[in-house]
């Protein structure tokens, strides 16, 4: 994963966390209490500046009462992508 792709991925997750938190009218401090994660750490996750562990994302998802995939996947594009369409093959030529 390139640095730009990784940065965009983290920013996308952060936007989803923030949107879900806002939808439930929770402040960072309230989500921090529910998750046991500090408000500054949550802020860094929401801004895409911190790469959260899977266990951290699981705590956030549980506190927000959503499946963890709601934080990881863009739910708005599911209908347009065809859902579980097979992925293209890999080009491993650069790695051999």
Task: Describe this structure as you would to a colleague.
This protein has 96 residues and is mostly helical. It contains 6 helices and no strands. The chain is elongated and about 50 Å long. The chain has helices at residues 3-23, 28-35, 39-46, 54-64, 69-72, 78-81. The chain has one domain: Orthogonal Bundle (434 Repressor (Amino-terminal Domain)), CATH 1.10.260.40. Mean pLDDT is 87; it is low at 79-83. Helix 2 (28-35) packs across helix 3 (39-46). Helix content is 58%, strand content 0%. This is DNA-binding XRE family transcriptional regulator. Keywords: DNA-binding. Pfam families: HTH_3.
| Ends apart, CA distance between termini | 17 Å
Order of secondary-structure elements: HHHHHH
CATH superfamily: lambda repressor-like DNA-binding domains
The fraction of residues assigned to DSSP E strands is under 5%
Query: Structural class, from secondary structure content?
Result: mainly alpha
What low-confidence regions span 5 or more consecutive residues with pLDDT below 50? 79-83
Count of structural domains: 1
CATH class descriptor: Mainly Alpha
Shape label:
elongated
Cα gyration radius (Å): 16 Å
How many helical elements? 6
Strand count, sense and barrel status of the largest sheet are:
none
Whole-number mean pLDDT: 87
CATH topology: 434 Repressor (Amino-terminal Domain)
CATH architecture: Orthogonal Bundle
Helix percent reads 55-70%
Number of strands: 0
GO cellular component, one term: cytosol
Pfam family, one: HTH_3
GO molecular function: DNA binding; DNA-binding transcription factor activity
Keywords: DNA-binding
